[in-house]
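Lecture 7 notes: from sequence to structure.

We start with a single chain of 336 residues. Read the sequence below before looking at the structure.
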Amino acid sequence: MQTVLYSNGKRFDEKLFKKEKDFEKLAIENSKTLFGKNSIIIDAKKKIDSQFIGGTVPDCFLFDLSDIENPEFYIVEVELAKHSFYRHIFPQITKFFAFFKNTASQNDLIEKLHSIIISDNEIFKDFKSKIGSRELFLYIKEMVENSQNILLILDEEKEELPEIINTYTDTWGKMVKVSILKQYVNNGESILSLSPSFENIEMVDITTKDSDEEETNSNYDENFHLSNVLPSTYKLYQNFKELITQKIENVKFNPQRYYISLRKRKNFAFLKIRRKKIAVVAMMDEQKVRNKIKSHDVVSLSESVQKFYNKPCARIDIFKNQNLEEVVDLLKEIQQ
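Now the structure, written as tokens:
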């Protein structure tokens, strides 16, 4: 359904794209706006031939360096929703799954991406300004190998996605993130909307409509979140969970697609398991969290993220088994 925005007395009509290349151009040319100042994008169709991704070329590659110690790599596919899901979108995304399972193809692409970056002065400077003295090739290699994400950008929702994502949890459910991009225009002026925003892409599931306020039946379990982590992270989670269950009576661990919520009457924290760490989003004012957490990193969350949770909150990054008690004591205080 075509929508309209009104701003400062002006009417902005939704632009309907007839050609996919125009929609792709919109996403790529506005990448810093859509994906944040700490993102770097490589226009794949201008730089990569099809041999690297199983005979197909994605629209672009996205490097999200907002967490420099845990960067994320995305294969980005921009599609018009009017295209057939099973004849066009499904086979395209399936080829990307195959790529992530093929070590030789990954190595070829890593070398190609490194070559592109060092030969493009603007992209190279952007990378070095963010990663500092880190060795570029190894940084890219670890990112591609350790973060396997596919970002599917559509102009409208696709009705097939909820069933596909909940059926193929280890591929579509784990790797594919979906955002809806729209452009609204008025006499040369333009407004863009991206839902969910990129900073919320791993919290808001627009396809399965997971709820943060209710305990839901889910096709996802703890093993889903722990399948690709380091052994040390797996052990860290088990120790952390054991301590939580000891100190917080009747607490429930409620795995959903993007997180494991901690629940007692209502959700009071969200665990996001990463390869090297556990990120704990605690429902408490950031300054109070900082006053209580001294042994782990406390990270500020943006206004958009705070709005999503509808409460003051902060993120605690846990990399080590030491001093887990202070985090659990804070969580106990929150749920009371």
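The chain has a mean pLDDT of 90. Keep this in mind for problem set 3.
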